[in-house]
């Protein structure tokens, strides 16, 4: 009998949540098969089988919190498991579910059949995918699964939800109406109809703890400025089609801000430092963190040595890490070692905010919505696309003067993007 235990999860990570089981008790297991997925506060970890045999025990259910080295499962190397394909159980279940409807009344030959009922036994889907499908009224049976063994994953459901509505087939008098979207279970009492209680995931708890630690462990302060985005917008509009055609990269405003921040950090290196005990550690490189909002919560992957890369390389890296974040495929290397962070609330419409430091970093740049506003230029009132920018910083390390000058430097570079090429 081989015991499968929770593997090391990464630096300072001691627990995880059992996200989903991909194998059932009694299933035949091959070497390398993924048995279970564990969700930490940073990434999703796949636990593979190191030996072949039969899964005889699942020690924890989906949703359970487990610690490093806890028992997850047991595999019997000498037993013989189920040989039926993964689709056998759902296939056997479908005729039984549909048989009463076909016997109730004859259906005209030309009438299309009703969409299948979205039962948990009909489709292999992760718990998260089932929950999102129920909330959005999406039929899991209509979604091709991209997970191992054809399992429908949460990203599959979200991708389907983003597609335009599909026309429903016509129904005859004999055809049953499509089922109503499955709703979360509710208590019959009035209080149950007005509130829903949901247990925090390990990732959400760790995000909360990290933000509180940042607030309590730093002397948090924010300074603001505004950037005239006219010059950057003009450069982007002139180059974006050619860059996408020649390099396959969509040019957004973020690479410009990354480049400007890297140059400003070179001028004011204390903003790229960290406190270690009674010492200040100055980083002579920039691992630029990019805050990404995913369905699992906020994550901050970072671009290694962003200060040594050109703008196109930075743009390509941003696209790649954002996609990995949305797909839940970030690695520990993506999420560790950051020295400075940029957070863009403007993509959601935020006009101004005070970003919280990504501790133990001492600086974070907040970007916001670009909005046409009247400003004074050479004694005249003109309309320009303006963006408020914010620098939150740890006042224990960074003096107000350095913080303000850093933000002014970012403003100068963004308003004259050509100067980034000669610095």
Task: Write up what this structure looks like.
The strands form five sheets. Strands 9, 12, 15, 16, 17, 18 and 19 form a seven-stranded mixed beta sheet that branches. Helices cover 30% and strands 24% of the residues. The longest helix has 18 residues, at 230-247. The radius of gyration is 27 Å and the shape is globular. The relative contact order is 0.11. It folds into three domains: 2-76, OB fold (Dihydrolipoamide Acetyltransferase, E2P) (Beta Barrel), CATH 2.40.50.100; 88-99 and 115-162, E3-binding domain (Dihydrolipoamide Transferase), CATH 4.10.320.10; 202-422, 2-Layer Sandwich (Chloramphenicol Acetyltransferase). The protein has helices at residues 88-104, 127-136, 154-162, 190-194, 202-217, 230-247, 254-267, 311-326, 332-335, 400-415, 419-422, and strands at 2-5, 15-21, 28-29, 34-39, 44-48, 53-58, 65-67, 71-76, 220-228, 273-276, 279-282, 288-290, 292-294, 297-299, 302-303, 340-344, 363-367, 370-377, 380-394. By secondary structure, the chain is of the alpha+beta class. A hairpin with a 2-residue loop joins β18 (370-377) and β19.
Show the helix and strand layout:
Layout lengths: L1 E4 L9 E7 L6 E2 L4 E6 L4 E5 L4 E6 L6 E3 L3 E6 L11 H17 L22 H10 L17 H9 L27 H5 L7 H16 L2 E9 L1 H18 L6 H14 L5 E4 L2 E4 L5 E3 L1 E3 L2 E3 L2 E2 L7 H16 L5 H4 L4 E5 L18 E5 L2 E8 L2 E15 L5 H16 L3 H4 L1
Parallel strand pairs: 12-16, 16-17
Antiparallel strand pairs: 1-8, 2-4, 2-7, 3-6, 4-5, 6-8, 9-19, 10-11, 12-15, 13-14, 17-19, 18-19
Helix pairs in contact: 2-3, 7-8, 7-10
């Amino acid at each position: 009998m081989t015991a499968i235990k929770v593997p090391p999860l990464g630096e300072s990570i001691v627990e995880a949540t059992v996200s989903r089981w991909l194998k059932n008790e009694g299933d035949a297991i091959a070497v390398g098969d993924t048995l279970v997925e564990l969700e930490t506060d940073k990434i999703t970890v796949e636990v593979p089988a190191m030996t072949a045999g039969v899964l005889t025990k699942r020690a924890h259910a989906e949703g359970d919190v487990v610690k490093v080295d806890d028992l997850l499962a047991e595999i019997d190397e000498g037993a013989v498991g189920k040989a039926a394909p993964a689709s056998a159980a759902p296939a056997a279940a479908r005729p039984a579910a549909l048989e009463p409807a076909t016997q109730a009344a004859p259906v005209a030959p030309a009438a299309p059949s009703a969409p299948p009922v979205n039962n948990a036994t009909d489709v292999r889907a992760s718990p998260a995918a089932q929950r999102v499908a129920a909330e959005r009224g999406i039929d899991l049976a209509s979604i091709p699964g991209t997970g191992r063994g054809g399992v429908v994953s949460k990203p599959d459901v979200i991708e389907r939800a983003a597609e335009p509505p599909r026309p429903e087939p016509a129904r005859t008098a004999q055809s049953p109406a499509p089922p109503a979207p499955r709703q979360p279970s509710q208590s019959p009492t009035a209080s149950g109809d007005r509130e829903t209680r949901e247990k925090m995931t390990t990732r959400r708890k760790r995000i909360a703890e990290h933000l509180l630690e940042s607030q309590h462990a730093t002397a948090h302060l924010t300074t603001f400025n505004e950037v005239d985005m006219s010059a950057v917008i003009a450069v982007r509009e002139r180059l974006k089609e050619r860059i996408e055609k020649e390099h396959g990269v969509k040019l957004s405003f973020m690479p410009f801000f990354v480049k400007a921040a890297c140059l400003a950090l070179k001028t004011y290196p204390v903003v790229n430092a960290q406190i270690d005990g009674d010492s200040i550690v100055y980083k002579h490189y920039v691992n630029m963190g990019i805050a990404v909002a995913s369905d699992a919560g906020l994550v901050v992957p970072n671009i290694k040595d962003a200060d040594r890369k050109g703008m196109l390389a930075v743009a390509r890296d941003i696209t790649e890490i954002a996609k990995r974040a949305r797909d839940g495929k970030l690695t520990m290397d993506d999420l560790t070692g950051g020295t400075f962070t940029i957070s863009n609330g403007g993509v959601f419409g935020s006009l101004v905010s005070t970003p919280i430091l990504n501790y133990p970093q001492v600086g974070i740049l907040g970007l916001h919505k670009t909005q046409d506003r009247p400003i004074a230029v050479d004694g005249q009132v003109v309309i320009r696309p303006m963006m408020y920018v914010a620098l939150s910083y740890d006042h224990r390390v960074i003096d107000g003067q350095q913080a303000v000058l850093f933000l002014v430097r970012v403003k100068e570079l963004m308003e004259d993007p050509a100067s980034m090429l000669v610095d």
